[in-house]
Design brief:
By secondary structure, this protein is mainly alpha-helical. It contains eight helices and two strands. It has a two-stranded parallel ribbon with strand order 1-2. Helix 2 runs antiparallel to helix 4 and helix 6 packs across helix 7. The longest helix has about 35 residues.
């Protein structure tokens, strides 16, 4: 077993501060004037270098996660400025519903629309009207029925071919 594979999984870090704290502790930053800590830093051994490499990896992953979250926030802000996303949710829901009226299988059409923007997915996810047309694949029927709430259901049991076409 290698030293890398024996390392515990990196803790989920979500901030740059957490990553830097881990990195500094790995570098043996003790109290000022602590001779043992200073001596340890001057005499690196395999275990200390291995620990330091692991902490750099954890810090790097934390920084990547922080950057990904920032990119998501910026994209949502950009999308909010688009004219279609300035429409009231009720009007946007009506437009989205109309756009998938004749699409089969409906669940796939919902997934495609939901991937356009976070706001569209929130509208689709929370509006029972999107979920009243029950259709294959069978694995999603329970979800569709639950999301349709108290609205009347319209089953569409068209047989699907293997390639997803009806």
């Amino acid at each position: 077993m290698t030293a890398e594979s024996s390392r515990p999984a990196a803790p989920p870090l979500e901030t740059v501060d957490q990553a830097l704290t881990i990195l500094l502790s790995a570098m043996g930053q003790g109290e000022p004037g602590d001779k043992d800590s200073a001596q340890e830093n001057l005499e690196p051994d395999v275990n200390n270098l291995d620990r330091l490499a692991w902490c750099y990896q954890v810090a790097s992953e934390a920084l990547q996660l922080a950057a990904q979250k920032r990119v998501i926030r910026l994209r949502r802000q950009r999308n909010a400025l688009l004219p279609i996303n300035r429409l009231p949710p009720e009007l946007l829901a009506a437009i989205l519903l109309e756009s998938i009226r004749n699409r089969r299988p409906r669940i796939l059409a919902l997934q495609e629309l939901g991937q356009v923007t976070w706001r569209w997915w929130q509208i689709i996810k929370t509006n029972p009207q999107f979920w009243t047309h029950i259709c294959p694949p069978l694995e999603s029927v329970e979800l569709q029925i639950r999301k349709a709430g108290i609205l009347p259901l319209h089953p569409d049991w068209t047989i699907m071919q293997k390639d997803g076409q009806v």
